[in-house]
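Fold Annotation — chain and its backbone

Fields — amino acid sequence, structure tokens

___
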Amino acid sequence: MTDATSTMQLHPRPSAGEPTPWAFPEPERGGLPNGLTLLRSHRPGQRLIAVEVNLTAPLAAEPTGQEGVATIMARALNEGTDRHSAEEFAAELERCGATLDAHADHPGVRVSLEVPATRLSRGLELLADALRAPAFAESEIERLVANRLDEIPHELANPARRAAMALYGALFPAESRMSRPRQGAAETVERIDAKAVRRFYEAHVRPAGATAVVVGDLTGVDLDAELERTLGAWTGTRAEPHVWKPVEADDTGRVIVVDRPGAVQTQLLIGRTGSDRHDPVHPARRLGVYCLGGTITSRLDRVLREEKGYTYGVRAFSQVLLSRADGTGLSLLGIRGSVATEVTGPALADLWKVLRDLAADGLTDEERDSAAQYLVGVAPLSFETASAVAGTLADQVEEELPDDYQARLYARLAETGTVEATAAVVRAFPADRLVTVLVGDAEKIAEPVRELGIGEVTVVSG
């Protein structure tokens, strides 16, 4: 019998090639005669085109007592136009394989379209109709209001959402829009009708001051002609610019316990406000926050999950709330997770010890190197799709950042040293300037938390 291995031919083992240089794409800028600003990015091979439209309709512009009207308006944009009923509009989107979504946040309203490149023309027509002449039929607005009212009890029952509401209410003064739910509370949403939605739309939604971002494979597409024919037909006078007022926040160290009798877990959310991405310290802070609690191998998880077994995971994060080039923007710097009720006190004690040890000893070079390698290395994968690139470009527009911001960010992350990252994350989470929200059984957790001395403890109804 012949030995098969004696005649086997082995091919040389393949070796890795030289890495291909990567940079976040910088868009090409332009505009339409109606005042709409355009950003485009040709991405060969991305046959699903992504379009993002930024509308300057901020939550702070909502009429007092009708908070939530921006959300209802955003949801109503694909519920019919002057040419199609809600059902017909949905059928037209489906027919061309497109999706159209919209949401409202503090900076404004974002409208998102995804459509195959072969159906781009029709997709842009439907997007333009939704922006140009939404129907805002009374029956549809009533349905959307009813849906929103149905959502609110579920949000209040969700410990993570309830913690966020309590934190925003504690950080910001009652007169600030930041202190109230983005999508409105029951007492304000129930006052919204079709006339209110129409008034908000007419006051804030127009092409002048808006920006459209188009990303995807634009081979063979006369994009200028398509945009002129569709979004170019959207008209309207320039609105009065929104006057942005500085937002004050109170991060005096204190604890708010949202009572949930019988809860077997405590949801925790610890936070304060900080600067936005215009601050030169942002890259170092992002690196430091990742080292503190960005992944399952970060310092918080290593102590609270691996060593102590208190939790399935704790995360630190930095979330832009409102970004302004004049320096009046701000971010939420936070730590969130959940622990078993009986270990709430010990878990918080260890969490504060992590923060104090970080301030005393700093990050290690190994922590810094691992974080930088991941954040920079994962970037090409994070932006593989047209929608990811379009969303990030739209974020930059919304935050008044330069078009090359994202590309420069990764270069800055790679250059940031351990000492710089340590200083940034320590400034972000000073142990004596954090507002702590705990959603859990107050009878069991309030006293152990008081004994920690991390701030005055207040118990509120859940």
